[in-house]
User: What shape does this take?
Amino acid sequence: MPTTVANLPDLLKGIPAGAWVAISESQNRALAYGVDAQAVHQEALQKGEKLPLMVRVPDQNSAMFF
Assistant: This one.
């Protein structure tokens, strides 16, 4: 399986801190976002994405490690 590096700052631009985001499996677009992770996941599935990547937008004062 090839490794994909997503440009998260571009994908998450304009999405408020604390929101859950469903990102396409190809990691090239945000499909849905909101406060309820389950609802966001369901919306991504309804848009035809079989395996969305779910992330939470960090607070400006927090750090993310991968």
